[in-house]
Design goal:
single chain; about 200 residues; alpha/beta; 7-stranded parallel sheet; two-stranded antiparallel sheet
Length: about 200
Amino acid sequence: RYRRLRELDLWPYLRDSWWRLTDLGGDQQIDRTAVFTALANGAWPELRVLTARPDTNAERDLLLDGVLRCPSLQQLHTGSLTDAAVQKLLGCQELLKISNGRSWDHRHSFPELAPDPAAVATGPGCQKLQHLILDRCPIHVAMLDVAKTCRRLRVLSLRGCENVTAESVAAIASGCPQLEYLNLNGCKNVGDVAIAAIVQGCP
């Protein structure tokens, strides 16, 4: 049932063991573990937009497995992401946006997504990714992978990511020439040299 679902919002309205599956109409209540398991089993292969916040490591693993089973997924709005999680998501070639927040959290802050019909994935990685919002996530080395594969990145928000280093930022400046918005507020390890690299690499 619902295998042709295109958009799914599973963000918990209340922190208990039940969710409301509002995007399927009405107030149908479902068990959260069952939803993550169904996602990991490829229940909704035509999803384009997924909003879901896992609260446990097991749920996070199921979510990541499920995202890889959605080959048409373009937007993922979820909870906090680690280096390993970001690196795994970079295997999703159709993703345009990854955000650790609800779909409307940043709607008015960043440039609109602009799908490029000429963009064709020719290798591994999120080559179509335009928005990457990882505020307050415990990430570091994943940024080097982003720099290598996400050349169409236009928006990068790393606000409060204390583990991000100048090396990572310099790599982003070199590897993401289309960058329009960069938030490094609270990135304590990023200094003047990295900022100079951004100015030079992202005119």
